[in-house]
Amino acid sequence: MGYEMRVEREPQAAVSEGEALAGGVVVRDLNAWYGSFQALRGIGLLVAPRRITAVIGPSGCGKSTFIRCLNRMHEVVPKACATGQVFLRGEDIYAPGVDAVEVRRRVGMVFQKPNPFPTMSVFDNVAAGLRLNGFLVRRSEIAETVEKSLRQAALWDEVKDKVNRPATELSGGQQQRLCIARALAVEPEVVLMDEPCSALDPVATLKIEDLMRELAKEYTIVIVTHNMQQAARVSDYTAVMMMAEDRAGEMVEFGNTREVFTNPKDRRTEDYITGRLG
Amino acid sequence: MSISTYQRRRTTNALMLGFCAVSAFLAVGVLVLILGFVLAKGISSLNIDLFTKMPVPEGEPGGGVANSMVGSLITVGLAAVIGIPIGIGAGIFLSEYAGPRLGDVVRFTADVLTGVPSIVIGIFVYGLVVLRMGNFSALAAGIALAIIMLPIMARSSEEMLRLVPQSQREAALALGISRWRTILSVVIPVAQRGLVTGALLAIARAAGETAPLLFTALGNRFLSLSATGGPIDALPLRIYRYATGPYSEQHQQAWAASFVLVLAVFVISLTARLLLRRR
Description:
Shape of chain A: globular
Distance between the termini of chain A: 19 Å
Number of domains of chain B: 2
Number of strands of chain B: 0
Oligomer: heterodimer
CATH superfamily of the largest domain in chain B: MetI-like
Radius of gyration of chain A: 19 Å
Largest interface: A-B, 29 and 22 residues
Strand content of chain A: 15-25%
Number of helices of chain A: 11
CATH topology of the largest domain in chain B: MetI-like fold
Order of helices and strands of chain A: HEEEHEEHEHHHHEHEHEEHH
Structural class of chain A: alpha/beta
Order of helices and strands of chain B: HHHHHHHHHHH
Largest sheet of chain A: 6 strands, mixed
Structural class of chain B: mainly alpha
């Protein structure tokens, strides 16, 4: 293969279904629709605990739809629905009787564009998840959690003197790290990131990538990205999605990142990562 | 192109431009004219007595319309207390919960309600509230004015809530915050200023209504502070009574009261606009 992709991560052992069921996420036969249009078909994936799993693929192949199915945000869109099984630490979040609101508290999400609450201060943004969920936490506990989350998001040193300023005064990169801190404050089991760097400059992007590596020591992370270099740089495992004939997204390849980028099994993956497709 | 065609086009163009400019000037100037006219007519009675004294018996000089002003504050206040929460609630329903079909039905109904003549609303409330309570009251007037405010409030708050980016709702929902909490603590604060603006415009509209008060507040020469205990006066009613009467003192007080009313509505509307502009 005449194309070299820099893969920084050490190759990981294949994910076993057991470890994904115990501490990560297992996706089985996931289908998603927008009205009558099928956006995802038969997706299966094992997400290893405390590792970064990247989902890559050409535009419109359903990456974002897929990641939004992992915390049941997909169904927030009018007329959207999903079927299949998604096990979060062994528990199917699509089983009848499971509360989507509860699922979203356990699975945090960071969006493409930084979306801090504009009417709230830096502090209140991070505290929002705790307060608005009606957790009965004391003022001192909230302050502790906010500081801890901001430190985890590598933002504390930059904002510690202006935690009471409006969140909108921060730069784009800082806002995105604020959104990460906000997601971490409710202590999620999994953190989903939907192209978290696509609205950021290269310096801010690198900061977020470093942060992701740091977070992967404690959190299970799934990141959607259209930036293959980014997937190669930060992820341990990579899943590749492609559009089928009818434009429904399918998973065509999954494995450890080094394997996927240097020795893809599927022809379409190879075409995609060498730039002949998408 | 011949010279004459060219000139004819130029003339037509100038005429049309002139017509539109004059129309625009008239539309804007009418408010200035009304304010000026009302002020000129009522200036002799525009004094402190107007705000502090009660109406005097017909033919006697002096007196004021203090009771009407208090009555207007009470009836419009009651209308605001009833109409604003329901209006905002309907707006939230339209913007956040209703599907396209149900939403259209509610929206269309609200638009029809906006167009219902206010005197019909007055008669409706007369039948529904006044007859059952056995007397005219500020409460009945408040309900009638609230019905007038309701569709304005519902539509304007819907528009304002729709302006809040979807990403804000998703940010909150993704934190595991319930739908209702998301609306209350994230969506409404962002739309707050727009909601206040809508409320002020609805209040301004209600403050000037006369017809619905005829069957609900009725009018009263004395000061009434009770919400349910009998007729109450209001500025538009007092203006109506004085203007249709034969006494010139009353005519002048009607002009002065009109000036106060128009000015109040103008100031409320202006405040609403300024609130919306300042970001």
